[in-house]
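Appendix C: a fully annotated inverse folding record. The material below is reproduced so that readers can follow the format used throughout the book. The structure is listed first as tokens, followed by the designed sequence.
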């Protein structure tokens, strides 16, 4: 992991994302880039009369204030790290961030907070678009709480799919450093999921921690995963991200959507 990209907005909560990204960059000797990306006030409020000079000036001042607040946060948290600052622009904020992620090993994103009014408007599909369009490992950070960049216990959600396999590969730096790894798969007593091939591969990849097996019933997978993560008190959930395109818009699968809306711990997702 040599290149980390973190999305930055103007909210105070962005400090936790930056701190987590900073910890990961220092731990892995990685270059860190913060991409500032919010919609302009004009695009976020198209119903206002942007042609009026007073309104235009007010919107421009709001945009400037938000950018300055984000830049101050960047300088405070990452000023001594030699991190790079870039800015996404235009209507295609989500695609701009996703395009930057294409040449990064990891992208750090924030869970949308519906109560936050200081962020600056974000595209509603920002996280979904970046995770799916970039195809790169994405570490999603909840909008509440503080988190360790190297959690001692990790929960790996497994199923024999491309997405889950890519997520497991992306999570190797965390899995190799963990003191305990929990592996969970959907199944029933009559049709249990085979864990042996995955466990054999993890050992070959240098995962030395004890491997604890868990099985979930194949219903309400998202809620069940979050409940298990809370019960086990793990510091990271690893899972594949499932979705499909409908009328040029990405639609997440049920479990992925539930995790994004209700997560209370960092989640490493890969499409």
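Designed amino acids, in order:
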């Amino acid at each position: 992991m040599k290149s980390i990209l973190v999305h930055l907005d103007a909210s105070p909560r962005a400090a936790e994302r930056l701190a987590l990204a900073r910890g990961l960059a220092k731990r892995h000797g990685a270059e860190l880039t913060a991409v500032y990306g919010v919609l302009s006030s004009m695009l976020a409020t198209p119903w206002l009369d942007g042609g009026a000079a007073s309104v235009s000036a007010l919107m421009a001042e709001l945009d400037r204030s938000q950018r300055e607040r984000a830049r101050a946060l960047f300088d405070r948290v990452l000023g001594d790290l030699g991190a790079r600052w870039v800015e996404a622009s235009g209507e295609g904020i989500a695609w701009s961030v996703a395009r930057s992620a294409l040449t990064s090993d990891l992208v750090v994103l924030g869970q949308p907070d519906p109560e936050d009014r200081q962020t600056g408007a974000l595209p509603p599909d920002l996280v979904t678009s970046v995770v799916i369009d970039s195809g790169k490992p994405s570490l999603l950070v909840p909008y509440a709480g503080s988190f360790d960049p190297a959690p001692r216990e990790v929960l790996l959600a497994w199923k024999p799919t491309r997405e889950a396999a890519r997520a497991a590969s992306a999570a190797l730096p965390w899995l190799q450093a963990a003191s305990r790894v929990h592996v969970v798969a959907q199944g029933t007593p009559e049709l249990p999921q085979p864990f042996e091939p995955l466990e054999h591969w993890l050992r070959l990849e240098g995962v030395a921690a004890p491997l604890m097996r868990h099985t979930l019933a194949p219903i309400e997978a998202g809620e069940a995963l979050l409940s298990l993560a809370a019960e086990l008190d793990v510091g990271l959930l690893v899972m594949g991200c499932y979705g499909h395109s409908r009328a040029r818009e990405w639609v997440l699968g049920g479990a992925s959507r539930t995790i994004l809306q209700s997560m209370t711990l960092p989640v490493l997702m890969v499409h």
